[in-house]
Hints:
Radius of gyration: 21 Å
Number of strands: 12
Bound molecules: 4'-deoxy-4'-aminopyridoxal-5'-phosphate
Distance between the termini: 57 Å
Number of helices: 10
Helix content: 25-40%
Structural class: alpha/beta
Strand order of the largest sheet: 2-8-7-6-5
Amino acid sequence: MKGWEQNIRRVIPYTPGEQPDCPNMIKLNTNENPYPPGPGVVRALETLDTDRLRLYPDPAASCLVRALARRYGLGEDQVFVGVGSDDVLAMCFLTFFNSNRPILFPDISYSFYPVWAELFGVPYETPALDENFCIRKEDYFRENGGIIFPNPNAPTSLLLESGDVEEIVARNPDVIVIVDEAYIDFAEGPSALELLEKFDNLLVVQTFSKSRSMCGMRIGYAAGSPELIRCLNDVKYSFNSYTMSLPALELGVASVEDEAYFQGTIEKIKATRKRSLRALRELGFFCPEPSANFIFASHPDCPAKELFEELKKEQIYVRYFPKPRIDNYLRITIGTDAQMDALLEALGRLLSQRKQ
Ligand code: PMP
């Protein structure tokens, strides 16, 4: 082994879902929104003054921070923005999880959490979800170095009731509790943003990728007490001052200002989720009650891996995780009604062919 090889930081990276480039595919594998961003965002892109790209963008991302603060009734000193919520979450791990005690997150949740923990050398423990894939709040009532969980959870799509979220935050006043709300806009329950007035150890992370149809623009944000936001900014400025590009800032503001379009898209996705859930259950799938823009589904008669592979042959992409406890489930993003009809037709056909 060469001397320098010993000094390399070696990590096992997170594996994102496939981004195949096939014109006729039905892409239901990465929880993207099937609808385009709103007309306000299109206008902002069309009128973007490219001459301004000569200059560095505002390092404080003030226009976007201001728009988000106004939209969610927060102070401008309570909002932090980043390059998608992955960037925001990575900064959070680096900033707030700096103890010898293990941080806690569920055994089945966003598979990026253990990757960041390994990368930053943060010890962690993963309490098991119960047999119904629900978070057991009691598991988080013990000494720890911080807590993070998605709500709704991924890949299960299950929502933890807001009273339970509050209890977890209240029982852990000496550590930071991060609620990753990438999918909260698709849930019926309230956001933990409501709890920020009561708790200075709570940080709520959201994204423009899902409900705002802007995965490709990479915008995420965190909301919390001014003290937490200051600490996050100090770490950000120690890493990369200019995280947000000028187009991201301008298109992000346009999206936040287009409230009616945003609400309309969410309603369409919820309606499609409702009918898709009913149809999947009629085909015999078991699906926990979904609160995100995806459904977690398992069929008693056919291994998920087989369905995943068969669907792929038909250019229908869903997500499959070959991991303990969930390796017989598909995670199916809610697409348009037409896309879901194609998926349901294919699943119905594959299941009946299998019976013969
Ligand atoms: N949190 C959860 C739970 C997610 O599923 C995702 C999407 N992969 C993210 C955060 C990150 O999303 P983005 O970086 O696009 O905001």
